[in-house]
Amino acid sequence: MASYDYYERSMTTSASDYQNQGGGGSQSLYDPDFVPDAVKTFVVHLYRHIREKNVYEIHQMYEGSFQRLSERMFKESPWPSTEAVAPYVDNDHVFCLLYKEMWFRHLYARGNPGPRQRAESWDNYCSLFGVVLHGVVNMQLPNQWLWDMVDEFVYQFQSHCQYRAKLKNKSEEEMQLLRQYDQAWNVYGVLNYLQALMEKSQIIQILEREKEGLEQFTANDGYDYNGGSNVLKVLGYYSMVGLLRVHCLLGDYQTGLKCLAPIDISQQGLYTIIIGSHITTIYHYGFANLMLRRYTEAISEFNKVLLYILKTKQYHQKSPQFDQILKKNEQMYALLAICLSLCPQVKLVEENVNTQLREKYGEKMSRMQRYDDEAFSLYDELFSYACPKFITPSAPIYEEPIVNYNQDAYRLQLKLFLHEVKQQQLLSGVRNYLKLYSTISLGKLATYMEVDESTLRVILMTYKHKMHAVNSSGKIISNADVDFYINEDIVHVMDTKPIKRYGDYFMLQTLKFEEIIGELDGVKVE
C-alpha cells in the first residue's frame, strides 16, 4: 500500500513538471517519445504489481491513476508511445501489449482515429489475444480490465464498420489507407477471436461443473487463488457477452442468444460484478428478445436491471462510465415502453420502475396503443433512440460510385420492426374487447369489430400467433395478458388477474426514505 501512496504523491508533482516542460499542450505539440516523470512512475509501478499478481494495486492504478493522469496530462493528446516507455519495463512484450491496448482506448475516447491507427489497434489486439490463446500467461488482472478489453474490442469493430461505411467527404489518402488495411477489423476475424477465447478457456465446461458443485469460478469472482492465471478464463467468459453484442449489431438475434446461453442470467455471476458488463448484457439480451417477440422475457430482464440501476446509480457517479450508464438506462426505459405497448404485461414491472417509466413515457405509451400514423412515428422514434448502432460488416466496393451506407443496416432493422408493429394493429382492438367479457359469441365480437366472422377468425388466430413465441429451449411461450379459446363459436376468455404484490409498495417507500436520508446527510447545519 505504501508504494501506491508514494505513486499518488509523485503523480501530482510530476503533472505540474510536465506542464512546465511543454508536455501538456495540444496535439500539434505532442512528442510521442517524451515520457513525463509521472508516466515513468506509473508504468514502473504497474509493471511491478502485474509481475507480483497484486490485483488490488493493479485495479487501483488501472481504474484510478490511469484515469486521473489522462485527465490531467493527456486531455488533448495521446499518451507517450509504447516504444518510449518500453525501457522502463524491461521491454516486456506482454506489458507493452497491455499498455498499447490502454493507449488506443484513450485515443478512441478522446477523438476520431484515422485508418492507420485503427489498423494498428486491430494488430495489437491480434497480438494480445494471440499471446493469451497460444502463449503462457502467468498473471492475474482485475475483472474490470478484462471486461474493458472485450468491450473495447467490440466497440472498435463497430466504430470501424461505421467509419468505413461513411465514404463521402473522405480524402484520397484516407481511401487509399482503407484499401491498404482492408483486412483490419474483418468480421470473421472478430468473431473467430471471441469464439476462440470462449473455447480455449473451456468456460462452458467450467460453468457446467460449477452447477454440479465441482468448481468455485463464480464464488472466487473468476480469480485463481492457487497461483494460476485468471486471464484466459475471464476473457472467455466475457467473450460470450461480446459475441451476443456482435450478433445483435449484425441483426442475428437467435445466434447471439445461443452464444450467451451458458450464462444463467437469472443468477448472479461475473457479468453482474462489473456494472458495465451487467448493463451491456441485459441491454442486448432484452433487445434480442424484443426483436424475436419474446416480450415477457425482455420486460422481466429490463425491469430487474432498471431496478438495480435505480438503487445503485448514486454509487457510480464518479465512475468514468457513469454517462454511459445513464444513457443505457434511458435507452432501456424506451425499450421497456415499446415492449409494454406491444404486450401490456405491467404486472411484470416493479412499482418504482413503473413509476419512472410513466414519468418518462406515460403519455407516449397511451398514444402508441392507437396504432395510427402518430403511433407508428412514436414507435419509430423510440426504436431509433434505443436500438444498437447496427453495422454492415462488408467492406465497400471502391470501384462503384462513392456513397454512404452506414445507415443501411439500421434502416433494414427499423423496417422489420415497424412491419411487426403494423401486423399488431388489429390486435389492440381484439384485446380491448376480450378484456370486457368472460364469454362472447363470434358473431357479436365480429359485429363490434366491424368484420365478418371468417375475417375475425383470422384475426384471432393472428392474435394467438403474435402473442406466442419460441424460447431458447424450443418451447412455445405465451406473451398474452388476455388469453382465450373458442368452443362452438363462443369465445371463452381466461381469467388472468394480476396478483397484487404488497412488497413493491414497501420497497418503493424504503427507497424514497433512503433518498431523503441521503439528502439530509448532505445538509450542513451551522
TrEMBL record:
<keyword id="KW-0963">Cytoplasm</keyword>
<dbReference type="GO" id="GO:0005852">
    <property type="term" value="C:eukaryotic translation initiation factor 3 complex"/>
</dbReference>
<dbReference type="GO" id="GO:0001732">
    <property type="term" value="P:formation of cytoplasmic translation initiation complex"/>
</dbReference>
<feature type="domain" description="PCI">
    <location>
        <begin position="301"/>
        <end position="500"/>
    </location>
</feature>
<comment type="function">
    <text>Component of the eukaryotic translation initiation factor 3 (eIF-3) complex, which is involved in protein synthesis of a specialized repertoire of mRNAs and, together with other initiation factors, stimulates binding of mRNA and methionyl-tRNAi to the 40S ribosome. The eIF-3 complex specifically targets and initiates translation of a subset of mRNAs involved in cell proliferation.</text>
</comment>
<comment type="subunit">
    <text>Component of the eukaryotic translation initiation factor 3 (eIF-3) complex.</text>
</comment>
<dbReference type="InterPro" id="IPR019382">
    <property type="entry name" value="eIF3l"/>
</dbReference>
<dbReference type="Pfam" id="PF10255">
    <property type="entry name" value="Paf67"/>
</dbReference>
<keyword id="KW-0396">Initiation factor</keyword>
<dbReference type="GO" id="GO:0033290">
    <property type="term" value="C:eukaryotic 48S preinitiation complex"/>
</dbReference>
<comment type="similarity">
    <text>Belongs to the eIF-3 subunit L family.</text>
</comment>
<keyword id="KW-0648">Protein biosynthesis</keyword>
<protein>
    <recommendedName>
        <fullName>Eukaryotic translation initiation factor 3 subunit L</fullName>
    </recommendedName>
</protein>
<dbReference type="GO" id="GO:0003743">
    <property type="term" value="F:translation initiation factor activity"/>
</dbReference>
<dbReference type="InterPro" id="IPR000717">
    <property type="entry name" value="PCI_dom"/>
</dbReference>
<dbReference type="GO" id="GO:0016282">
    <property type="term" value="C:eukaryotic 43S preinitiation complex"/>
</dbReference>
